[in-house]
Recover the amino acids of this structure.
């Protein structure tokens, strides 16, 4: 796969990781599995996004970082009936 496409895969991983972080912060407790999953998604997303950025494609990293913050904020401030 080319670096540009992997950068967008990294952006999706970053957004999913951000949503996971927001869900963990807003829930009653942090579970070990979810914590490991969000750390792994965030690490993979940053790695792939940074590789694309260094190859000259800056949109995936910016999209992933902004999307991760937006996803985490949305999950924190969205009302859920658990």
């Amino acid at each position: 796969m080319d670096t540009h496409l992997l950068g967008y895969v990294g952006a999706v991983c970053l957004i999913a990781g951000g949503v996971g972080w927001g869900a963990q912060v807003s829930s009653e407790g942090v579970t070990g599995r979810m914590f490991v999953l969000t750390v792994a998604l965030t690490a993979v997303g940053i790695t792939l996004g940074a590789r694309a950025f260094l190859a000259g494609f800056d949109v995936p990293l910016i999209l992933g970082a902004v999307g991760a913050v937006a996803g985490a904020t949305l999950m924190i401030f969205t009302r859920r009936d658990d």
Observations:
- Residues 3-77 form one domain.
- The helical segments are 3-26, 32-54, 59-77.
